[in-house]
Design brief:
The complex is a heterodimer of chains A (566) and B (504).
Chain A lengths: L2 E5 H8 L7 H8 L4 E7 L4 E6 L10 H8 L14 E10 L9 E8 L5 H18 L6 E7 L7 E6 L5 E2 L8 E2 H7 L1 H6 L9 E5 L5 E4 L3 E2 L13 E7 L2 H16 L4 E8 L11 E4 L5 E6 H8 L5 H10 L3 E5 L3 E6 L9 H12 L19 H15 L3 E2 L5 E2 L1 H6 L21 E2 L4 H9 L8 E12 L7 E12 L5 H14 L5 E4 L5 E11 L2 E9 L1 H6 L6 E7 H7 L1
Parallel strand pairs in A: 4-7, 4-14, 19-22
Antiparallel strand pairs in A: 1-3, 2-3, 5-13, 5-14, 6-13, 7-10, 8-9, 10-11, 11-12, 14-15, 16-18, 17-18, 20-21, 22-23, 23-27, 24-25, 25-26, 26-27
Chain B lengths: L5 H12 L4 E2 H8 L3 H13 L3 E13 L1 H9 L2 H11 L3 E3 H8 L3 H13 L3 E4 L4 E4 L7 H9 L5 E2 L7 H10 L3 E13 L1 H8 L8 E2 L4 H6 L6 E2 L18 H15 L3 E2 L5 E3 H4 L32 H13 L14 H4 L2 E3 L4 H9 L7 E10 L11 E10 L5 H15 L4 E6 L5 E11 L3 E11 L1 H4 L8 E7 H9 L12 H6 L4
Parallel strand pairs in B: 8-9, 10-13
Antiparallel strand pairs in B: 1-7, 2-6, 2-7, 3-5, 4-5, 11-12, 13-14, 14-18, 15-16, 16-17, 17-18
Helix pairs in contact in B: 1-3, 1-10, 4-8, 5-6, 5-7, 8-9
Chain lengths: 566, 504
Amino acid sequence: MPTIDVDYAEFERLLGVAVQGDMVKLDEILAFVKSEVKLYDKQEGVLSIEIKDTSRADLWSAEGLARALRGFLNIAKGSKHYSVGEPIVDVHVDARLRSIRPFMGCAVVKNVVLTDAIIRGLMHLQDKLDQTYGRSRRKTSIGLYEFGLIEPPLNYTVAKPDGISFVPLGFEDELSLAEILERHPKGIEYGHIVKRHSVYPIILDAKGKPLSFPPIINSNDLGRVTAETRHVLVEVTGTVRETVLNTLKLVAMALIDRGGEAYAATVHYPPEYADVAPAEDVTPDFGSKRMELDVDYANRILGLRLTGKRIAELLLTAGLDVEGVTAKSVSVLVPCYRVDVMHMVDLVEDVAVAYGYNNIEPLWRELPTTGSERAEQRFINIARELMVGLGYQEVLTYTMTNPDNLFVKMNCEKARIVEIANPKVVTLTCLRSWLLPGLMEFLSRNQSVEFPQRIFELGKVSLLDDTRETRTRDEEWLAAAVSHADAGFSEIKSALDAFFANLGVNWQIKATKHPSFIEGRVGAAVINGENVGVLGEVSPEVLNAWKLENPTAAFEINMQKIIKTK
Amino acid sequence: MVELRAQELEILALLAESPEDVTVEELTRKGKLADAAVMRTALTLQEKGLVKIYAKTETILKLNTEGKLHAERGLPERRLINALNAMGRKATLSEAAEKAGLDEQFARIALSWILRKKWAIYDSKANVLQASSTPTEGSDEKLLNSLKGREQVAIGELNPESQDAVVMLKKRQLLTMEEKTQRTLAVTAAGKQAVQAGQKAAAEVVTQLTPELIITGKWRSVKLQRYNIEAPVAKTWPGKKHPYLSFLEEVHAKLVALGFKEMVGTSVETSFFNFDALFTPQDHPAREEVGIYFVKEPEFGDISAYEAAVANVKATHENGWTTGSTGWGYQYSVQEAKRLILRGHGTCLSARTLLSEKLEVPSKYFSIARCYRPEVVDKTHLSEFNQVEGIVVDESLTLRDLLGVLAKFALEIAGADKVRFKPDYFPFTEPSVELSAYKEGYGWVEFGGSGIFRPEVTLPLGVKVPVIAWGLGVDRLFMMRASVDDIRAIFSQDLDWLRRKQVI
């Protein structure tokens, strides 16, 4: 979820409502756009706002939030209009980019008034768009330039890794594209996006001066915007045309909100692009999208009886425009920045939000359905009750663990288990394949608690299984352990025997070997000739590994196999 | 004159013989009596004014296993310096350690202490250890020596110089300290008198009623000793169900009673059901390494059984298919859909249910599923947690029904006092609703998300009626009910907490 930092005073001014530091009130307002205050740093005057909607990129700036909220705050209904002048820049796209980073959008915004604070806000928006909407620059990336330094038309083309050199932003020396990927921090961070190609994207002006090596880094000479900049050129490159154009609109709007006037650019695509883009793409396009909202459809989803007129009012409150209303349908104009609207149902939600969720009366209806629980679940609960009756305390441990716990400390050979490719911490790297290690760990953490200690866990273990869709299966297993000065084989055998007897299960014990248990004091539990588990005295090696000071006996059985016999 | 029983008299006599006050332990040894019995008798004697009981609380030191080992053989750094001196004051660390008989773990400990105590200089480049002095016995070693072979020692018995050494050994985790109450008995003047007067025991007073007494009828002629029923007894720790699992059982039962059927699945899931079928685009941030756990080996599962649904989902992602949506407008990869992950929410089970041929209309389904996300564990986050997931499928469902289900849940199952709804966002529901519930003394808590499945979710799976869905953090429901404010308490590894936790 994107979190943005905004200047509190600036935000309050843009909002047009005196919040006076009341964060509860501000949260109530922000709830209309699925956002909330995460942090308010009073000293710095900075608000951190979390925006839950990952597809509403139009909200990721103070201006964007204010724009979206003005209807709900009764400041202005309908959308905010943006306009763009005739194209003043041409961009030529090289056909070889089609398989690399095919699309580009471009605009010039003149007479912008920038301050350091505003530039910080812009950079913040640019970063959010690059990271989240642009998927860490894979899908889209943005470049801003001082327009006066650039000679149009622009060429969006390709260059060999060592075919061109320029001074990247923040550096003093010229580097080749390959060197940028090696040495520039942004090259190291984003290089993987282009590295697999034999040529890299590059934007040049009419004189052949590089503007940028997208999506990596701008030129230090042209690609820098300062408080003195008045005319800004914006370009967005990327892999999905719609996302590129949406991103361009959002950046241009932020500059227009700062007093700028936007002028379009004409992006010329080569014939090889005929199936994916028009030959001439005039960007940005601030035109809205027309959608018909069926009144019945909306009411059927909401469970309300709203008239077309009422729905139209609510849509205006939510910041959409309405072209016409009949009893049956509402013609909606979705403003260009509402990039999240994909389906009529998105408009229905806007109606509901404007109506107020808490103004809708909850309804509990008795549908003619019969509840049922799996027979397995009942059996599991009975098994747990039996263990409790035998004096064992139920415990609950994590299913995530590590091979050291599962195997090394249990004196076992490492087996194949469900391992995680991207563990967050070294102690949680796989799913458990048996329960006893968890019980050992539990005992090791309770060495100062009164003995005797008797514990059990009935829970899932995950095992690799190539015959299944998920290449794994989960099984319910049961493990119990008893630990005290006189704990031994007979106590655990007696408990397991009572457990089976009360479930009406006929079992035998067979001598076996198991590296976690003392030889000659370990047995396999066998039902109908099938091995269902193990019981015995835990070996001193294992006790030492877990720093247990008392003799400990334990059993572990596969409940799934026992359920099967029932 | 007071009446005395045989055991009372015996204890009184033992006490009177002794020139000074006697501890309960000593008395037990001398009289060959059971500890509890001595204490009980002493209490009745005190009531009769014949003895006085003094209680003194002392700190008792005990060496643990490692401490005992070092007491026996000497501290690792001492063994290392001795070895080093025997080797001409200079040797490599591993040679010196080997001569000292230290394994790798103790060698490391020995090195760190030998440097801290400035007994030697270590040149880590050359891996050479040079003895700088022949150290005298330190206070920690003296203490260790004095504890050697003894089960326990009261801190008061040690000379004052040892106090620092106690702290040192405690820090090194070689000894444990516990508070212990020592009870001492002293006979009073009246008690002495009673002994001198040659008090005879009142005949036939019996402590333990035996089968023999009952069968022979002898119990009629004996006097059964009165107990001090207020005397403390040993604690009993019954086996109990885990409080959180009991709560889940209850939630389970309530949902079944409300007409829900249970859904089950595996902890490992394909991305198709966890994400794609739920209209989450393949480049969504939740599908990156920071948002979900990936399975290392094998990387991909099998979705060949769902060919038609996969094709519908692919088209829906790319261009909206026939759902009336614009779709996400990107090139969908079937291979990516097969990627195995640890399920990040229970909603994947709902997706499977919607696709199942057995889906009934109307119907209600639920699951209580362990879910996984790469979170840093803190007061409010775990990297694995439980989610109660539910769906209701019926032609007539509206947003009002969704709010109704949520309210029912919070008020009846979590025991909340009131509820509140807020707009929320999920790629797979629209409208989406966040449920918050309030409980007096606990405050507002966000429980999770819900909504009506988007047409982009239901239609590709072949479902043409509305489906309301919710996935609530059942862990938080429990926390509210049990008034626990740290989510880690759910997986508490504290046996004492479990033992003391009330069952209601």
